[in-house]
């Protein structure tokens, strides 16, 4: 004794038993009438069971898809929230798999989902939010949704409000907490990224290709909740939900934002001074997203006011705001680069003051902001006034930390950038830093040896200590140049490097080859006696399975070529075939192609008779790899090498 279908097509009210007046399928409009109304859990589980077969397009379901959809519509306004939730889930999956069966009823489905997004049961509302995310991925999104946006946007914005529980979990009710020490579980484990040698391109700012991932601002509320759900939809119909948008999608969204930025940016800068810490912290994060645009405008318009306010927020009395401001400032540093030089004194005063203010967690982020500043302004940091401000607090922290303290990682990374930037300005601090790095490498190698011999008696060492130390030694060699020679002469670093280059861990080898290249440039006199031992190891590491290891080994070989000259001849055949194979390999990352091309060119420059016969096998990918590289010494030597080889084997380039 089911109620007859309300043919007016209403989907409101508790009595409505049907979602649509015209269910899909070839039949005339009718309303399905289940003979028995099962109890709610049975109805809910029945939908959930069938839902399992949607994404796999199970044949049995596809043959009965219209009947299934009809029965879904009949249960659309069921009194049981679990039933409504599973109806929403089914419609979301059908949107991905059989949108063709939903299109004729899309207007009514959207109206229904607008109601479910405001459902009194949050789980139902959350499931309904998925509908908008999924619809945003469909090509028909703009066409079917535009007329409903006036209803949808207020509903989504309303759902984004923090609940009182959210605010408590986010410590949003706490405004000043800078004096409260961090608990250890507040601090995420840090992992050091080994040094990778890259070349700069025309019109490009230096950037680590692996640094593209973004951290969400609400790390406490990591669950997919109703407030975060709408935020996954970026407002661009083509942006996939909760995935990093592709660069093209981001770009098109960004272009749409540009006309509003002259008003938006000053408003967001004002939000940096809001009385609520949560607003100040999210304003930092949001502004960092527009750093590239800010830097492209005249500095007095937006860069200067943004920088001034961000520096104030770095010294905020709320730890969450300090963290967001430090991260945002690091992003701004990467974009602005030397635009920051006129403000260096002011910036350093702020960052150094933060040393005395920050608790444990934010101190680690502060190291990153200082290292990024050094990377961004480079040698401009090498002024006595700046060195006097920056180095004492860094060296104080350096002296406080024990060799086994993992806080050394971010501090060593920071010092590596600072040493590279300060160049000779780092000389007064270099000896104790150098010695400690050598000690860290030596200790780790000794622990590894004991563990390999007696794994039951000793713990495996944390090789990150050795990797970070090798990278700081690279920074010292790059920054100090020939001044590092005396330090190398008084240490056993070449012996240790020989062991590190053969380590089983790829990241250790990666950092070893970077250091070998930097020492080759800075003090080849100490590297040359080891070349006969080093070259076979470099040759065996020209394996593109380990891209970064292969990249750094390739780069080091190129640097060795330039120092060895014609004496490189005995080693050419050890490496040439592998290099030619890599440059012709499909899907090889750009950085590896570029370094391979440079090294082939340099090999040909010093040993043209040995390399020129293979010219035809690499000349085309060689040219395409290097045409966009910025002019520098490496490019210069590589192109000279190609010219010399063409003289030896002109037939190799005729095609």
Automatic annotation (TrEMBL):
Protein name: Transportin-1
SUPFAM superfamilies in the record: ARM repeat
Species the sequence originates in: Cairina moschata
Similarity comment text for this entry: Belongs to the importin beta family. Importin beta-2 subfamily.
Keywords: Acetylation, Cytoplasm, Nucleus, Protein transport, Repeat, Transport
ATP-binding recorded as keyword: no
Biased composition (Pro residues): 23-32
Region (Disordered): 1-32, 179-248
Highest taxon listed in the record's lineage: Eukaryota
